[in-house]
Amino acid sequence: MDNIKDSLKKVSIHIGLILGVIILLTFIFLKVFLPSFTNHGETVSVPDLDGFEYSEIESYLENRNLRYEINIDSGFNAEIKPLTVLKQTPKAGTKVKSGRKIYLTLNSKNAPMIKMPNLVNSQLKNVQEILSNIGLVRGDIKYVPDIGQNVVLEQKYRGRNISEGFEIAKGSQIDLVVGDGLGNQILDVPNLIGMDEVDAEFLIIGSGLRMGRINYVTTDTVPQGTIIRHLPPSGAEVKSGEPIDLWISELNKDTNF
């Protein structure tokens, strides 16, 4: 009987020792080995990379134990330098583990080309929304006498009228000629013959009219840049805001004055 008790006691001691070793190893694994292996508790705050240039990113993130990857899809903002950071994931200030990869979207080198919409005869408030939605910038607004109040009469890029479908770089500035709603007056067309283009434009606008199409005519008898014809002609009665088309002399290439 005593032998049985001694045997049971020894077995119990062995089982207790084995359980103790298992508990100790489990504790060491969970509290020491596993945290060190997974960098548990070691976090860094994601920096704000907005506006960083591509050449600055790698060394900046390496110093903070972070990595990065550039997204294939780039964006475009005409107001900032090419190859600068537009977006980042995770956001700035997020707590992440050391070695985490930050995904970046860079500003494209070249602006994507988009097709110019037709803004003529549209209300100014709608035009501003259209331009914003497709990535164009509303530039200067020039009011001219016209019966259509706040109606777009012309759309211009770098001083020239552009038509619907014309390809233009995203972020470009579009200037607008807009009616002031006062186009019900009857005016006489002034005589523009013999004037240069600058003086003619000044007189046209000052008379409550607006510039129409400009046509160049090659001649060797009239000084270059002189108005030789216009429609409607001098003395014609027109409504305020009406366009005046001009024909301007251009030197014959074989002629020297």
Automatic annotation (TrEMBL):
UniProt xrefs under Gene3D superfamilies: 3.30.10.20
Record carries keyword RNA-binding: no
Pfam (any one): PASTA
Coiled coil start-end: none
PASTA domain residues: 41-108, 183-250
Transmembrane segments: 12-34
Record keywords, A-Z: Membrane, Transmembrane, Transmembrane helix
SUPFAM superfamilies, sorted: Penicillin-binding protein 2x (pbp-2x), c-terminal domain
InterPro entries to which the protein is assigned, alphabetical: PASTA_dom
Name this polypeptide is given: PASTA domain-containing protein
